[in-house]
Amino acid sequence: MQKRRVGSTDIEVSIIGLGTIKFGRNQGVKYPASFSLPTDEEIERLLNGAVELGVNLLDTAPAYGTSEERLGLLLQGRRRDWIISTKVGEEFIEGESHFDFSPQAIQKSVERSLRRLRTDYLDIVLVHSNGEDKRLIEEENVFATLNALKQAGKIRAYGMSTKTIAGGLLTIEMADIAMVAFNPEYVDERIVMAYAQQKNKSIFIKKALMSGHLQKMQSADPVQDTMRFIFAEPGVTSVIVGTINPDHLQKNVNSVLAAITT
């Protein structure tokens, strides 16, 4: 599995990252079918399979229910095999999202993630935007807070999971990573990806497979065609794919490998 550097840091991530929302939350999600949370044994099997495939990037968040705690338990003794990306700003409580981007809340969230993940550092922390990207950057000064935590050695890189083009461009200007939505049905944020390439910053792709709705595409192999479409963009660092099915992960990895070699 090819790895790519995160901006100007020394972090290298696999070009496929494993999204873990399904490890800890099955309420308020936009997947086409309901699902039960996996057992610890099922998650461990998936993680072992991911390692064998060369995947080293895990994407989690406090808003993903019990995902962080479960990863913390299952990654004991092999923390350094993984690059962990988590988030700040959003929590999912009793079926609703709650947001707080104050310096105190961000610091508290990072400290809590460190405890939950049973680690003394977080590789990547992204602001979990509520859609007000520009205000969070310019008025809440979220990146100043994260930079202080980086200087303190608690995180290695930071950025934002953005929801606007303006926010994505500002994130590339001021941080290491922008996580943006991109797929054949949604290309609005291509300008952010091009700017990241220009500035030697990183792009993580979310919603690559349209949250499980990819079957809408008229294609014999929509996953492979989608991955080929995404990786044709030079600014892409990693595509985050959420799954609890080892066969789906294998298929996604195969599709990426085929996409980047043809």
Automatic annotation (TrEMBL):
Gene3D superfamilies: NADP-dependent oxidoreductase domain (3.20.20.100). SUPFAM superfamilies: NAD(P)-linked oxidoreductase (SSF51430). CDD domains: AKR_PA4992-like (cd19095). Residues 16-219 form the NADP-dependent oxidoreductase domain. GO terms for molecular function: oxidoreductase activity. It comes from the Bacteria. This is Aryl-alcohol dehydrogenase-like predicted oxidoreductase. It comes from Aquicella lusitana.
